[in-house]
Amino acid sequence: MAVPKKKTSKSKRDSRRATWNRKAAIQAQRALSLGKSVLTNQSNSFEYPAIDDEDDDE
Q: Rounded CA gap, 25 and 6, in Å?
């Protein structure tokens, strides 16, 4: 016969949620920082194509 698992304590549940939220906050901060540096053209870790003038095609 199947036996139910033991209930997870509230402190363990809260600890896991806090870890998940902390990791998410760090990733959000890194993404925001990268976005700001790309917008100000100060990024060293992100490469993107430069805008070429249309006169080069002729």
A: 31
CA 27 to chain centre: 3
Contacts of 34 (CB under 8 A, 6+ apart): 43, 45, 46
Rounded average pLDDT per 10-residue block, the chain, 58 residues: 87 96 96 87 72 60
The rounded distance, in Å, linking the Cα atoms of 28 and 26 is 5
Question: What distance in Å separates the CA atoms of residue 25 and residue 29, rounded to the nearest whole number?
Answer: 6
Per-residue tokens: 54: 């249309």
- CA-nearest of 41, 58, 35 to 50 is 41
